[in-house]
Design a protein that fits this description.
Blueprint lengths: L2 H18 L7 H10 L2 H14 L12 E6 L2 E6 L2 E6 L11 H10 L6 E6 L2 E5 L2 E5 L5 H10 L9 E4 L4 H4 L15 E5 H8 L4 H6 L7 E4 L4 E3 L2 E5 L8 E7 L2 E7 L22 H18 L3 E3 L7 E8 L2 E6 L7
Amino acid sequence: MSKHSDLQMRMRAGQARAIELPQASITRRKLLAASLAVPAAAVIAGSIGDARANSHTQGAQSNAIKNTFTMGDFEVSTLLAGTRTVDNPQSIFGMNVTAEEFAAVSEANFIPTTAAQFFFTPTVVRAGNEVILFDTGLNPAGITAPLASAGIAPEDVTVVVITHMHGDHIGGLSGEDGTPTFVNARYVTGQVEYDAWAKQDNDNFKAKVQPLAEKMEFIGDGGSIVSGITGMAAFGHTPGHMIYMLESGGKQLVLMADMANHYVWSLGYPEWEVKFDMDKAKAAATRKQMFDMFTADKIPFVGYHMPFPGMGYSEARGEGGYRFVPVSYQMML
């Protein structure tokens, strides 16, 4: 008998046994308990599938998706503010490697070379009386919908932290008419980052960021947002790109923004050049330095463009690279 025939027989036998099982008495209480036992990740994955099927742009269908957990005194929510498919990913990632190497790495990680899925994931942290939003997505509608899913109205946000000044991080600061989205918030960003963009002739920066300058607090490496949230210099992607360490209840979590923009082609291979890194050599050095630390200390992180919910760990892969290990239930414990 062939292995294929044997497998079919075992499958049929298994199906027969399943059919012969006595029917259990299913009460409303049991059904409710079963539904509560479904991991949050499974619910999130199902929602993303629906969103992705309908989205090749910013993904309006994804705007109600959140991932919330507690970390000491903090309540943290990663918010899916959009997702889109991008063609020809090697025009963005791995620009300094051959097409053959790019294809081999992609195949080994079960991802195509013809397209990539981008995710846009701001994070909101409730810390005491503060509601702190890290980055604002592409536009006001894109951020206010997922905030609403977390029970937060724009006027509830007390602090807006901008990690860097690319359009998909500052787009939700205000509407097309210049009306601020977060009317009760103060704003925090890196001094180096702001100064670098202020010297450029950038319409998006002028429209979204400069009008809020008088309400902004500028910090550097080691600067504090509130107790337990500290800025860390992670320059390279932009001149003053900042990431943020959250510490509470003996736990740590890093919001790494765009330090690595893809879980394989950027995180896994930190020396691969990324189109959007303004200083490619510095960005690569920063990735290696930071992921060495995250790996050694087993610190989880949130990546703005990682597959939603954007959270994971890194482990050493050899040859100077890393492997992204997605979170499962660690943050629920």
